Amino acid sequence: MSFLKRARKENLISLAMDLGENPAPTFSKIDLVSLIQGNKHYNEDDAKFMLETVVTEREERLKMEADRERLKMEVEKERMKMEFELEKLRMTSDISKNPKHEKPSCYELTKTVPSFDSKDGDITLFLSLFERQAKRAQIDTKDWVSGLLMLMPSDIVQLIARESEENFDNYNYIKSVLLKRFKLSPEEFRKKFLHHQKNSEKSWREFTFEISNYFQEWIEGLTIDSFEKLKNLIITDQLKRRAPFEAKDHFLDEWTKLVSPSELADKLDKYELVRSDRKYETKRKQQFNPIEKYTESNQRTVRHKPFTGTWNARNMGYPSRNGESKQMHKFSCYSCGLEGHTSRFCPSKAPQRGKLNPTVQGNVITTTEPKREDASTILTAEINVPVEVAADVMELETVQVKLGSRTMTGIIDSGAQISVIREDFTSGIK
User: Fold this and answer.
1) Which residues contact residue 55 at a Cβ distance below 8 angstroms, ignoring those fewer than 6 apart?
2) Which UniProt keywords apply (predicted)?
3) What is the dihedral angle through the alpha carbons of 117, 121, 127, 131, rounded to the nearest 10 degrees?
4) Which tens digit of pLDDT belongs to each residue from 213-250?
5) Residues 65 and 118 in one domain
6) Per the structure, how many domains does the chain have?
7) 397 touches 343 (CB < 8 A)
8) Are 177 and 238 members of one domain?
9) Are residues 114 and 176 in the same domain?
């Protein structure tokens, strides 16, 4: 049954008809599968084999139709080529009979006009060059289509071959078809006019002709037919170059059609007015919803609040998982209350930090220079052995710790930001 669901609708219709059913074109795939399975002659293996046969026949039929169409196009192209050769022979025969009335041949255009490139070529520039060379060679207008076909690639020849017989020899009609198919927009001609570069293989006269043609197509596409309109177009183009990118995106649909400087200026002024109003409203919202500023006092208050939420909710100002972010708190000193350092590195304790620990000081060797005796210098070395000296408890920060009915003084460890008490004080806690 799964092979029926994977089959295409056209193949299911053919299979149902082979089984003697008469499915309607409006049937869905589910209806067709139900219709096939409900047939009295339905057998899964036979149906699968018949479906494969239907698919194979359909693919062969499509392939034959494609080959037939391609062969038809080749025959048509060969016929046109033969007609051209016959026309050339007829013209040669007429010239031999009447040498005084020699008729120009379209074949001469292949020597002066390059073939058209449908991917990178400019159809307007090509047709302009073709018409100039055809007039210079004095070729009859009714033969222009034949000469044009000789310079076109096969895909464009096939496009022209689809036209009716009565329009096939009409050059103006064929020209309109090609312009409609390949012609660029006025904006594209403007870009080509501004950014077109000279080819090293071409002369400056050819380059002048190309940019002149681009300019002509640009103004003709915008129906610029007077000096006043041309002046407005140039001024508008300068305004567009200096307009912000946001405005260009805002008026994107009509940007290329704007040719009046006053109209463009009004649109830009309205756009900037609306943007300034929105910026003012945004600033007012920010004033009425200011971000909470943490001072030294409320930072210490927040730091010592009991921890009741998740870690991310009190994580020193780091963003929490739900996307909210808080201002990061700075370290504060327990000794002086200032921010930016801890009690261990407090500047007020700088004199004490210069003193050595009594245990370490026992290994220090000092020298003294006593009074001179008998014109000689006597040096005395004193060596101190390590002795146990009680630390100055008064310099440590303490806090009262209460556990049940017992109260004891604990030492605040500023490095770990926790309170330290003796081990025997908590020995009874499990």
Assistant:
1) 7, 11
2) Coiled coil, Metal-binding, Zinc, Zinc-finger
3) -70
4) 888 877 877 878 888 888 878 888 888 877 887 777 77
5) no
6) 3
7) yes
8) no
9) yes
Look up residue 274 and give its amino acid.
V
Task: Name the residue with tokens 């002369």.
Answer: 203
How far apart are alpha carbons 63 and 79 in whole angstroms? 24
Q: Please give the Cα distance from 123 to 182 (Å, whole number).
A: 6
Q: Which two tokens mark 9?
A: 């609708």
User: What letter represents residue 424's amino acid?
Assistant: D
Domain limits for position 242 = 186-285
Q: What is the DSSP letter of 185?
A: P
Q: Last residue of some domain: 139, 154, 182?
A: 182
Whether 71 and 142 share a structural domain: no
Residue 94: other Cβ atoms inside 10 A: 13
Query: Tens of pLDDT along 412-425?
Result: 766 655 666 667 76
* Contact of 210 with 125, CB cutoff 8 Å: yes
Residues 139 and 196 in one domain: no
Take residue 274 and report the two structure tokens written for it: 């609306």
- Helices (H), ranges, 19-98: 29-37, 44-97
168 and 238 housed in the same domain: no
Residue 215 gets which letter from DSSP?
H
3-state secondary structure 318-344: CCCCCCCCCCCCCCECCCCCCECCCHH
Q: Scan for tokens 């494969």, then name that residue.
A: 52
Within a domain: residue 136?
A: yes
